[in-house]
């Protein structure tokens, strides 16, 4: 790695440079995404001798066992010089000192690097995108009622999300509820909460997720309602195992655009309950 580079923790005054870096990579982040990552976790940057930000990596702690690595970006023109390895080495040292097992969502471009560091694949997912989703006429889950998520729901929503994701992240979910109220929805059945959806605004598309539900019908009903309320275009990151939900999205005019792989370091068991994880919060958040 270039000896003229400096590695340091990102601070709020670096937000504009970090946003420029993610835009350079063609990613979906807006300033609030970077602010969330620095508020709830830590970000690290590599700076050139002119103080230009040329690489980043972030981590979100999800104690007591897990942490999320994201936003590993190297600016075009600086790639192929070991900067990604340097950033990943640093965040892994930080997490090792905290006793937290690293997990992440890898693009096909980044996956070979993570494999070299000892990460292994858990499962894949696809990003579905719709510029103008088509509301279908099919009947879906008449057993649930969809309504806006309220503050009184958050404890139960966070508990359901923790079972599905594998770690508790109440603060993150509260931030997402404030980000995009149009997509902050719950599905209520006769015996209580059957599912929940959150979302957030993006530079290129509105991200819908996380989506957790006890059955596919409740998940589809939540997505259908959000489609009528949230700004387009829309994107949803759906595990490959969710075949029925993927088929539903295709019928609504979504297209599969990009593949990812969920990975974990070493031999640690896969966290969460994948069968009831209908859509993730996005590769930055897990």
Structural commentary:
- The chain has 286 residues and is an alpha+beta fold.
- It has 2 domains: 94 residues, Aminopeptidase, CATH 3.40.630.30; 148 residues, Aminopeptidase, CATH 3.40.630.90.
- Helices cover 30% and strands 33% of the residues.
- It is built from 8 helices and 13 strands.
- Strands 1, 2, 3, 4, 5, 6, 7, 8, 9, 10, 11, 12 and 13 form a 13-stranded mixed β-sheet that branches.
- Helix 3 links the parallel strand 4 and strand 5.
- It is globular and about 60 Å long.
- It starts with 5 loop residues before the first strand and ends in a 7-residue tail after the last strand.
- The mean pLDDT is 94.
Helices, strands, pairings?
Elements: E1 6-9, H1 15-24, H2 31-40, E2 42-47, E3 53-62, E4 66-74, H3 83-98, E5 101-106, H4 111-116, E6 119-130, E7 145-148, H5 154-165, H6 170-179, E8 185-189, E9 192-200, E10 206-213, H7 216-229, E11 234-239, H8 243-251, E12 255-265, E13 277-279
Task: Give the structure's gist in a few sentences.
Helix content is about 30%, strand content about 35%.
Question: What is the H/E order?
Answer: EHHEEEHEHEEHHEEEHEHEE
Q: Report the biggest beta sheet as strand number plus sense, adding barrel if it closes.
A: 13 strands, mixed
CATH architecture of the largest domain: 3-Layer(aba) Sandwich
Briefly, what CATH class of the largest domain?
Alpha Beta
Percent of sequence in beta strands: 25-35%
Number of strands: 13
> What overall form do the CA principal axes indicate?
globular
Task: Report the radius of gyration as a whole number of Å.
Answer: 19 Å
Helix content: 25-40%
Looking at CATH, which topology of the largest domain would you report? Answer: Aminopeptidase
* Total discrete domains: 2
Count of runs of 4 or more consecutive helical residues: 8
Structural class: alpha+beta
Please tell me the overall pLDDT: 94
End-to-end separation: 29 Å
